[in-house]
Model the fold of this input.
Amino acid sequence: MMQPGLPLTSRNLILTGYAEPNRPRVAQQVAAQLRMPYVDVEQQLEQRLGAALETARASFGDRRLKSAADEVMAEVTLHRHAVIRVNGSTLMHSDHLARMQENGAVVCLVARLDAILQRLHLRLGSRYHDPAQRAAALGELRREWAVRAMPGVLALDVTYQDETAMVQAILDLWQRIAIERA
Done:
């Protein structure tokens, strides 16, 4: 689970995975409920690059994107007692996962594939029927979920849960972690 060392009050709650399109809002609500600062790695990366991630990838290439992600992650690992939202592909790059696990619990939100496909269909609308768009979305999902197989990552199944239930499930898990550490 979490590495010994830092007291729970200094630990981060790191959220990753793809369970629904409103990931930032869920993480923000968790942070508000826990009265912890919220850090969105993807948002910080977009600010650093001056463009959305897909636009930056097309303009600068993967190498520049990964280099910027390394810079942002070096800063993010300095945070304490925060809710940090980071995508799975960023966590899997370099030693980011191991460094994040030193400072907190990594929780990967997962859902059954049929629920994900339904949510993707709603998010993409008519673009869902374009094989290239659907393949890109499923590729993102595959990259996001790769982290859940890593040692020490907690998978939290939020299949068919609405936003409020997801937030509560994350809060319940954080409370169980606190009890286990006590």
